[in-house]
Amino acid sequence: MQSSLLQRLDLFARALTPFVLTLLLLLLSLTPLRSPYLAPVMPSIALIAVYYWTVFRPDLMPSGAVFLIGLLHDLGGVAPLGIGVLALLAVHGAVGAQRRFFATAGFGLLWLAFAVLAAAAQLFIWLLSCAMIGRLVDIAPALLQYAVTLAIYPCLFWLFGRAQQLLLRDAETVR
Fold first, then answer.
1. pLDDT per residue as tens digits for the range 73-82
2. Burial code of 84-104, b = ≥16 C-beta within 10 A, e = fewer?
3. Within 13 A of 144's CA, how many CA atoms are on the CB side?
4. pLDDT digit string (tens) for 118-152?
5. How far are the Cα atoms of 2, 48, 52, 111, 170 from residue 154, in angstroms, in the given order?
6. Radius of gyration over alpha carbons of the chain, in Å?
7. Domain that holds residue 107
8. 3-state secondary structure string, 128-173?
9. Which residues contact 137 (CB under 8 A, 6 or more apart)?
10. What span, in angstroms and rounded, lies between the C-alpha atoms of 80 and 171?
11. Domain count, the chain
């Protein structure tokens, strides 16, 4: 009985890994930096994480988790409250609707698809931010953030892939 409980707790902890890893990376990216010039161009780690886990393990990245990640992202001052949530949920929904295509695509095609979705999300955030503020905001920081996000995508793709390999391999030995 105790072994069964421990196994269930282990599987539960493994199921939380994508969410917890995303939260840790998000908190790391929201850490105040000494340079005011770096903050506006921090990569959108939340966007990369939601995209990756929705493609490869949608069961471990449900829309409720995406909502919480987006809310924490917005509360970190990255965007006006609610805009990041909407953008992440839109990406989650778009990827989820085409998951069969994404799940069989190679890395290059996944990166290209991410580039398109990230551009749409960044534009969406920028437009809604302008609408909420009531004036046009300089788009240069958004474009730079987009470029940095695309540049860091392969590193996080690798990190999440390793986490997924360990998660799945170890989860199979527990059963």
1. 899 877 788 9
2. bbbbbbebbebbbeeeeebee
3. 10
4. 999 999 999 998 998 899 999 998 999 999 999 99
5. 41, 10, 11, 8, 24
6. 17
7. 2-31+40-174
8. HHHHHHCCCCCCHHHHHHHHHHHHHHHHHHHHHHHHHHHHHHHHHH
9. 126, 129, 130
10. 39
11. 1
